Amino acid sequence: MQPGAVLSASEVLTAEARRDVEHAWNRRPFNVYAATETAGIAAECGQHAGLHLFEDLVITEVVDDEGRPFTPGEYGSRLLVTVLGSRTLPLIRYGLSDSVRMLPAPPCPCGRPFLRIGGVQGRAEEALRLPAARGGDILVQPNVVHRAMELLPLTGWQVVLDDSGITVYVAGLAELADTGQVARRLADALALAGAVAPPVRAVRVPAVSRTALGKAPLIRSVRGGGEHPGRGRDKAADTD
Ligand SMILES: [Zn+2]
């Protein structure tokens, strides 16, 4: 049986996941971006070229760390959302820690007037702060890690950065597959992104750990006496 449409929400929709969906169901998935606090924020139209903001429901601003507006086309540090229909609990310029970019204004061929956002890189707290090859620090965006892990023969993964290095917890890794290969693949991707990666090791686990709400955070930093303050929030949907 073939579904009429396939929607993807809650996690980053990677290029590989798109291909898998198309291959399995012969349908291009519609990427949907939402959060528990706001419900829907944006969704792809049939053009699959960015996600139209639901501007009649939510005012969405892409801002930097200080809350200043970001130039269209560049990834911001977070989003401020104002929900127009929420009367019981008004949300006004409420911060979401997702890194997204607003697409420049030319209208979408579908005819909808709503502005579009391009990729959602993932939660800002999922970015890994690592020493940079050229000195100083670099913030490695989650999509770098996603691309490295996506094609491996496993059913689940979780990358944890702590003071001892990076541990990749892998679930469902084929028995014959090599955890060393998993670790090398991630280390190579981080090096390619310009980071001097700390030691990377991969460990087999029966299943990756989940939050009380059932989500499995894919990338966590637990360093210097505590997790990122943004961690622990649970969102209904984030996308690429
Ligand atoms: Zn459109």
Write up what this structure looks like.
Residues 225-240 have a biased composition (Basic and acidic residues). Residues 220-240 are annotated as: Disordered. This is AMP-dependent synthetase/ligase domain-containing protein. By secondary structure, this protein is α+β, with helices and mostly antiparallel strands. It folds into two domains: 7-124, Rossmann fold (3-Layer(aba) Sandwich); 126-222, GMP Synthetase, Chain A, domain 3, CATH 3.30.300. It is 14% helix and 32% strand. The chain contains three helices and 15 strands. It has helices at 15-25, 142-150, 179-192, and strands spanning 7-8, 30-35, 39-44, 51-53, 58-63, 78-83, 94-96, 98-102, 116-123, 128-131, 137-140, 156-162, 165-171, 200-205, 219-222. The strands form four sheets. It has a six-stranded mixed β-sheet with strand order 1-2-3-4-9-8, with no helix packed on it. A four-stranded mixed β-sheet has the order 14-13-12-15. Strands 5-6-7 form a three-stranded antiparallel β-sheet, with no helix packed on it. Helix 2 runs antiparallel to helix 3 (179-192). It starts with 6 loop residues before the first strand and ends in an 18-residue tail after the last strand. Mean pLDDT is 83; it is low at 225-240. Zinc ion is lined by residues 45, 47, 52, 108, 110, 112. Zinc ion binds at residues 45, 47, 52, 108, 110, 112.
